[in-house]
Structures are given as structure tokens and as C-alpha cells.
Amino acid sequence: MSHGAALRPHPFVERLRRRFLGRLFDRLGYDLVPAVSDWNHRPLSGPETDALIAGAAARLDHDLAEAGLSLPGGAAPAVATFWDLIAMAPVAQKRGGNGFNGALQLYVLMRALSPEVIVESGVFRGLTTWVMRQACPQAEIFCFDPDLSGLRYRDPRARYHAVDWSSVSLPRLDPDQTVGFFDDHISQARRVLEARERGLTRLIFDDDAAAHRLHAHGGPAFPTIAMLTAPRSGEPVRWRRNGREFVYRPDDPEATAARAAIAATHAFDDLHAATGYSPTRLTWVRLHGRDGT
């Protein structure tokens, strides 16, 4: 049986969902959908597959250049490799975590950065750990998440810690050979300052929503990188989500310190126009070193 077939819902379960359970959940105000990853839906004919890969590669090449990064041979070979790899992913994700676009961006970024050490904060089911291992087979990976009970993939060579990354002593890290990846729904200003304190200068953030879009983003961690780097006025940013009101003040001391620590950022294209998959919000961040460079 193919990998894709193995992930399809059992016909009986699907009939039960459509005829009975789906209607019940609909009355309760919920959607009941199969836990099938978005990449299980894909073009099969050559021209359409080639168009998807070429379109994604063109956008990724542009973003890498804008971020001051490069990938030998360009992004196209990496995208083509990822297209085959993701079909074998050991984690199925429908709600939460990275979909195809986010996983592709992370794969290409890690190939371009080629770190010897990766620090991952926010592991969830383990898909991103798997993606980074495919991109960097020899890297040492430190995985942090206070709740590892949801893991579906455990990297045999990674070091797992069921705590926040800020509470664990790490070995001395070479900033030129280390990348920090943050997908943990914690203030990105706080993560910037923690990373700089530990000597990390090369960072990747997921869920980097702009202030005017934060209301539509589940479990927002704020301020995001986009909020830190946006032109500022004296007016606080306010929004409502699920009946709760939030406020962000750009002159908050933590936000001000994080803003000063950032040397450069680049938000990658969400890739939806190229691939048709759900948009993503991955951002590359470079910090000033401790010496101010």
C-alpha cells in the first residue's frame, strides 16, 4: 500500500463522519474533518507538477536573495527533492503545525544555512524536526517543548527537553554554525533577547503575523517580528479574539530592546499563489552580535 493510501480515512469511518458525526458536530458549532495532511492532495500530471515546483522555486530564490542567503544550484533542485520527500513524512497534520508551504520554506532555508547545530523551540508532533533532519542530516538538534506528549516523530539523534529552552544550559554555540527555529507561540521579542543572550544570531520564526492580521491568527504570540519592525507611532495596537481583548505597546521595554537587537529581517512569500497550499508566515531574522556587529 502506498504512503498516501495509508493515510486515507477508512471508508466506513468516512461514511460515519459524513452521515452522522459531521452533522452532530455542525450543530455544536464545530467542523469534523479527516486528519489528512494538505500535501496528500497534489497534482499528478507532469506539466502541473513542474509548474508548481518552478513557481515555488522562483519565489524562494527571490526570498533567499532578499535575505542575503544563497543555495548552490538555486532552489529548484531542493524543491524537487522536497516534493518527493514530503510524501513520505511520518507525521500527518491537518490542524496546527506546519503544512506543505511552511515545511518547504523551512527545508530550503536549512539547506541554504547548512547549520551544524539547530535549536528548535516548539516541537508539536515532530514534523519540523523531521524536515530539518532531511535538510541537514549531520546537524546536532536540540528540541524543546514543555509538552512532548503529542510527538508522532522522534528523531533518534536529537536531544529532547520537556521544558522551555530558556531553562536549559546549552554548550557554547558558534553563531555562524547555529540556527534557532522558533514555533512556540511565545513573545518573539522575548525569544530574540534570549537568543542574543546565548550568542545566537541566525533565527527563523514561524507565525510572524502583522499587527493588522493578528486577530485572525490562532494563539497569537506577540509582539511578532513584523510588529517589532513595523513603523511605529505612539498609539498602542489593540485587537479582539474569541471575546478577549489584547494590547501591544511598541514602547514596551522588552520590545524596544528586541528591536535594537535585530540587524535584518525578511518575511518569506507565503507561497500560496505558487502551490495552492495554505499560506505560511516564516521569517528569517539576523541579530547583531554581542559586539554590536
UniProtKB/TrEMBL annotation:
InterPro entries: SAM-dependent_MTases_sf. This is Methyltransferase. It comes from the Bacteria.
